[in-house]
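Hello,

I think I submitted the zinc ion job twice by accident. Can you confirm which output corresponds to this input? Input:
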Amino acid sequence: MARTFACKDMGFECNFVARAKTDKDLLVKVAQHARQAHNIEKVDSDMERKVLSVVKDA
Ligand SMILES: [Zn+2]
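Support: Only one job matched these inputs. Its output is below.
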């Protein structure tokens, strides 16, 4: 079982998918991707909540 995040679920036209064992690890990967692909300097707590709301178990 893993936590899965699909960038398109955030409303981006983006095929990025991240997978991790924990939400904490997942958020690290998402933050890295957000910076590189979407010029989002920092994933703040609002954004983290948004990310976690679209995370699925897969
Ligand atoms: Zn993306």
